[in-house]
Amino acid sequence: GVCDGHSRSLNSIPSGLTAGVKSLDLSNNEITYVGNRDLQRCVNLKTLRLRANEIHTVEEDSFFHLRSLEYLDLSYNCLPNLSSSWFRSLYVLKFLNLLGNLYKTLGETSLFSHLLNLRTLKVGNSNSFTEIREKDFAGLTFLEELEISAQNLQVYVPKSLTSIQNISHLVLHLKQPVLLLDILVDIVSSLDYLELRDTDLHTFHFSEASISEMNTSIKKLVFRNVQFTDESFVEVVKLFNYVSGILEVEFDDCTHDGIGNFRTLALDRIRYLGNVETLTIRKLHIPQFFLFYDLSSIYSLTGRVRRVTIENSKVFLVPCLLSQHLKSLEYLDLSENLMSEETLKNSACENAWPFLQTLVLRQNRLKSLEKTGELLLTLKSLTNLDISKNNFLSMPETCQWPGRMKQLNLSSTRIHSLTQCLPQTLEILDVSSNNLDSFSLLLPQLKELYISRNKLKTLPDASFLPVLSILRISRNIINTFSKEQLDSFQQLKTLDAGGNSFICSCDFLAFAQRQQALARVLADWPDDYRCDSPSHVRGQRVQDARLSLSECHRAAVVSAVCCALFLLLLLTGVLCHRLHGLWYMKMMWAWLQAKRKPRKAPRRDICYDAFVSYSERDSYWVENLMVQELEHFNPPFKLCLHKRDFVPGKWIIDNIIDSIEKSHKTIFVLSENFVKSEWCKYELDFSHFRLFDENNDAAILILLEPIDKKAIPQRFCKLRKIMNT
């Protein structure tokens, strides 16, 4: 139901909008006209933004069908007039912004009488809006926020705002303060919070008669981008005294065009800043600061102030005498100023800020932690100290601190280690955004530890922090934590460990995913807890990551694989032994060697008529009968015998192969002894390699004695085949 059409260069409201649209944003376009039919089908629309267009015409019934509309923004267009008919059916409208148009008044009749549920209203512009009349706000009884931009306001009819019985927050943009008191008289009894913006109070004069008898309800007064002089500042102080309900005053981005000469301005007749308890000053500009008087003339006004904030205003010193006058001060914030140890010594002098409990010196020019602690020893009531964003760099071994210190903020101070310098009475410690790589400091009373954005690899040891209940340790380099570690923090209620680089091991995932109670302890769980490794789950939430069985039971898997390999090797060995696998491997190697030889030796390489393969046990018959008969034949045959013609030192396999290849024939003398001889079988197989590879009849068999066919082992299949021929 959300339609976002902002900054699309549209020059009209798009057609085709239906009842399904509940939020429509057409801001920052070039729309000039809103017609009766443009939005008539958007009956369920609750939010309509038409800000920053060029709308100059809105027809009477343009919003008639938007009875569910709660938010309407027509600001910064070109509307020259406003019409009550636009709003007559917007009974549930809560927010209406009409700022920055061209109208001069809010119309001839009451615009808002039908808007009974309106809570936020913004009207006016910086140029042409010049009149506020009695009927303008008729019908409105309660507003949470009313903003009126009337920099050029010329006419304010008395009681124009009295019809609004209760206004929580009123924002007034007034260039001159001429009509300010008239407005203040009307709202002083119905307003809680007044904010004055962009006003030059040089000519402001407070009339006691106009407001002294009024029952005031204003509790907070804010001046934003307002200019004062010494004289007008005194007039504002008078206002504080007569509007007795004011408890909080704030000056934001204001300018004091004076030199602080308050002595001659009857300030001595004013004893206090009314009932003001909280004073806030941010970005105060004093163009003539180097001519500025001391502030002794206003010291007496500060006695009842309990909370003071002076931020980003180039404060380098709070005079000792002023500090001593702030007798009720409980909270002092001097953030983003120029305070150093030298000036702090004067500010925190003896009897200064006797009841001060909280001191904030964030982002000043403090450099020595040891000296800062010593200078604050005069503050007997101090319990909370914020000295973050100062460049301390290192921490000494020992320090002195006020005896009641409970809370200390040392974040962003570039320290790289913690020492016994920290007070043992601390209950809250913030050391975030530093260079710490460990935490091994005993702090027996510490309840909250903030140590995010450091370089810690593990959770702190729980024995150092026996009563810790809150631990913020996000954005470190922690890769895991265990159930045992968490259980060791017996009082831990909140742990923020998100944004670390978690190694999603099986143990860590099992702990993180199965502990239902973990979600109640871990802050930002599960979205801020993501895996960094293993790589295939990187970026996944710890809660969603899943690892395979092999990753989670690696030792068992490795053991099983090793056992399987061992059994496979054992089985292979048994099979090799039973099936003569070793013999086959030897034969394969010999065959490969033979295949590397030339298929047929050149004719000139034939040296023998025959190679004789026989068992050594048949040598008598072979050598004394067969060899003698053949070698003495006419013509004689030249035979190759292993014991006579093999080359000494040459591998026996190579000798066999070479002898067979250099012989025309191979004579096999078969016997029972031949069958039992391994080398004889090699010779037989090599001869048959030639028989099959070269397709010639190179083998001659001589059966020396009858051989039982069953006596020939099965693996000698070639011999068995030959015996059958």
TrEMBL record:
Full protein name: Toll-like receptor
UniProt function note: Cooperates with LY96 to mediate the innate immune response to bacterial lipoproteins and other microbial cell wall components. Cooperates with TLR1 or TLR6 to mediate the innate immune response to bacterial lipoproteins or lipopeptides. Acts via MYD88 and TRAF6, leading to NF-kappa-B activation, cytokine secretion and the inflammatory response. May also promote apoptosis in response to lipoproteins.
Domain of life: Eukaryota
Key words of the record: Cytoplasmic vesicle, Disulfide bond, Glycoprotein, Immunity, Inflammatory response, Innate immunity, Isopeptide bond, Leucine-rich repeat, Membrane, NAD, Receptor, Repeat, Signal, Transmembrane, Transmembrane helix, Ubl conjugation
Primary site of residence: membrane
Subcellular location: Cytoplasmic vesicle, Phagosome membrane; Membrane raft; Membrane
Underlying gene: TLR2
GO molecular function: transmembrane signaling receptor activity; triacyl lipopeptide binding
Lineage: Eukaryota, Metazoa, Chordata, Craniata, Vertebrata
Membrane-traversing stretches: 555-576
InterPro entries: Cys-rich_flank_reg_C, Leu-rich_rpt, Leu-rich_rpt_typical-subtyp, LRR_dom_sf, TIR_dom, Toll-like_receptor, Toll_tir_struct_dom_sf
Coiled coil regions in record: none
GO cellular component: membrane raft; phagocytic vesicle membrane; plasma membrane; receptor complex
